[in-house]
């Protein structure tokens, strides 16, 4: 018998693997949280499968998502990234990633970890929603609005409420698996 999954992942093997093994599982590791910030910010305006298919290219291009290295990127590295056909070549998003790496470390310094900061928005507990269908899953919530507003105040870029909510879903801060999904 075939597993029941959330409809958004379709029959694509990469998508199904991501859905089954990553999406909605709580993440507390700062390195992984940063990786998803980068990937979600690049996803804005594109499909998630596009980003997933380029994930390994992003990993190579962005020094394994090492925010300490990314924060030090210079103009030459920006031009190298802009020439990399394996990633989404959007200068504003590349520059935002460098900026966000710096802001990420500021948050770590203030809160001890980015994880402590971001999980504080959900009282350190995943929000377990009860969607029957994909139509029941919101694009934003009051919490993603508040988090996006706070990130913006701290100088983060390309992390509006919709991107932040997608990040919350991806990192398990919110569980939006539909009720009959096997991964719920």
From TrEMBL:
Domain of life: Bacteria
Keywords assigned by UniProt, alphabetized: DNA damage, DNA repair, Hydrolase, Metal-binding, Zinc
InterPro entries according to UniProt: Adenine_glyco, DNA-3mA_glycosylase, DNA_glycosylase, Tag
Keyword Transcription belongs to the record: no
Catalytic activities: Hydrolysis of alkylated DNA, releasing 3-methyladenine
Keyword ATP-binding belongs to the record: no
A Pfam family annotated for this UniProt entry: Adenine_glyco
GO biological process, one term: base-excision repair
Entry-linked PANTHER family: DNA-3-METHYLADENINE GLYCOSYLASE 1, DNA-3-METHYLADENINE GLYCOSYLASE I
Chain's role: Hydrolysis of the deoxyribose N-glycosidic bond to excise 3-methyladenine from the damaged DNA polymer formed by alkylation lesions.
Protein name: DNA-3-methyladenine glycosylase I
